[in-house]
Amino acid sequence: MIRIQNLNQQYGGTRILWDLNLDITEGACTCIMGRNGVGKTTLLKCLMGLLPASSGSIEYNGRELTKVSAEQRAPSGIGYVPQGRDIFPMLTVEENLRLGLLARKDNAKDIPEKIFELFPVLNDMLHRRGGDLSGGQQQQLAIGRALVLDPKVLILDEPNEGIQPNIVKQIGDVIVKLNQEEGLTVVLVEQKLGFARRVGQEFRLMEKGRIVASDPMANLSDDLIRQHLAV
Ligand SMILES: Nc1ncnc2c1ncn2[C@@H]1O[C@H](COP(=O)(O)OP(=O)(O)OP(=O)(O)O)[C@@H](O)[C@H]1O
């Protein structure tokens, strides 16, 4: 579904991604894992067109994305929940969710009911400002906003960072439901091993700007963890 080949990226003179190759299987939940600073967020930003690739190709369903503007990538079916959530604090929950409608191709006018079934708290807080929500609720709002788009693939960058355990559990339940019951393709940058094992079917390990191991989650061995994840 997504095929990245020989992707290179640099900030100024510092090269971050090095001839990176990555395949994402349709219908799977794939966890991209690796220590801090290996380039996971940079990889997702390149995928979303928020950072330019220096060279290489990113194919989505056979279409070359590096030539597609960032604004066009969401309507093509890619939902993105950035690290740090990025909701609009002065807008209400409803207004934040409505922003997701703008990226839909079908001019839908209403927020899908499903969003409130997945995250009932968003309905309870519909008219509150985004900035008044707790960190966990803001994360649910950010995921809800990406889902308003009705994406074919949902990309999440460390959705559980700094979030209380009961909301981490709820977010995990939603990811499992969307992926396993509804067949949504999920790409998840995740540092928490337990969470990755619970929701993911595939892993990709990153080290110094490259993918160094790719396999089904069941094959994530203690050896690989020691080599590429332990600090
Ligand atoms: N705007 C920037 N300008 C220059 N260097 C940057 C910038 N953003 C990130 N970097 C550097 O790029 C490298 C990769 O960062 P990136 O955020 O992609 O890693 P990461 O694996 O997502 O890490 P983390 O888990 O800490 O978020 C790091 O060395 C970081 O310092």
Automatic annotation (TrEMBL):
Where the record annotates domain ABC transporter, the positions are: 2-231
Q: Name one GO molecular function term.
A: ATP hydrolysis activity
**Pfam families hit by this protein:** ABC_tran
Keywords on record: Amino-acid transport, ATP-binding, Nucleotide-binding, Transport
Entries under InterPro entries matching the protein: AAA+_ATPase, ABC_transporter-like_ATP-bd, ABC_transptr_urea_ATP-bd_UrtE, BCAA_Transport_ATP-bd_LivF, P-loop_NTPase
On whether ATP-binding is a keyword of this UniProt record, the answer is yes
Question: Is the keyword Secreted in the record?
Answer: no
* Superkingdom of origin organism: Bacteria
- Which GO terms of type biological process are on file? L-amino acid transport
The similarity comment for this entry is: Belongs to the ABC transporter superfamily.
Name of this protein: ABC transporter ATP-binding protein
High-level lineage: Bacteria, Pseudomonadati, Pseudomonadota, Gammaproteobacteria, Oceanospirillales
User: Gene name, please?
Assistant: livF
